[in-house]
Specification:
By secondary structure, the chain is mainly alpha-helical. The protein folds into 2 domains: 204 residues, Alpha-lytic protease prodomain-like, CATH 1.20.1510.10; 85 residues, 2-Layer Sandwich (Alpha-Beta Plaits), CATH 3.30.70.1350. It is 68% helix and 9% strand. It has a 3-stranded mixed β-sheet with strand order 1-2-3, with helices on one face. Helix 8 links the parallel strand 2 and strand 3. Helix 1 packs parallel to helix 5, helix 2 runs antiparallel to helix 5 and helix 5 packs antiparallel against helix 6. The protein is elongated and about 85 Å long. 41% of the residues are buried.
Amino acid sequence: MNLSAQSESDRKALSFAMNLSLSIGLLMFVMKMGAYVLTGSAAILSDAAESVVHVAAVIFATYSLRLSYQPADEDHLYGHAKISYFSAGFEGAMIVLAAFYIIYVSIQKWLGGLQLENLGAGTALTAAAAAINGGLGGYLVWLGRRKHSLILEANGKHVLTDCWTSIAVLVGLALVWFTKWLPFDPICGILMACNILWSGTGLMKSAFGGLMDKTDPATLAKLTEILNRETQPRGLSYHHLRHRNLGDAHWVEVHLLFPAGASLTGAHRTATDIERVIEASLTPRAHVTTHLECASDHEDLHPHEAVGKPGFKP
């Protein structure tokens, strides 16, 4: 079974979206740096710094997406799709790094003396950047979930983080504009950093869970339901159910126990039918491996295993 998850049309759509994200990311950096030059705002500088981090993350995500398309080979028997977890973790780490930098710059500006100019032009550029990033981020998250691409979804969340950062900047500049109290600028920068720090740590946690093959309760429940439905009417049982997410597909392993006297031909055909049901039921798709055993002598061959009990057994 081919482990490549996306069709050629899906790959083109994902690649286009990633290239679009990179191009707009560079444009956003230019716009935000222009706004900072005009205003001298600590919050806008922090927003621009976040864009630098975002561009670096998108470059790595673009490389990861291309690598994930590579088929399995002698050195990577399960394919290359798990790079998506590295990409999401890297993106999360970059968001966290940006958050700490924003806090540092905001405090430094506050203690060093605040001076803001040309708030009107700077606000207009920042508002335009927020609107563009909001639309782009929503599109990337939607497409990533639709095409089951963790890399694109993580990138979309980063873009949305950039959007919220710009909105926080606008709030700070508006407060400064109406109250004439300059500390609102760094205060909003710090609050904004705390928000994106939460987003970044969430991405890192998700990536770590994927790399450590953390069990997904929803997938386990669905697999259990399918196996119970498919084995009980046939007079079979199962155990040693294991599954993990490769990034673009599920890998499922399960032992099926057949009654004494079952022919190898019939047992293999039944196991194949069950495999196909599982493969058609999981999203993203699944690659399923079954191990056929005889229930009558199972305890003699495997005395430390409990027969007929589903689920994981060490």
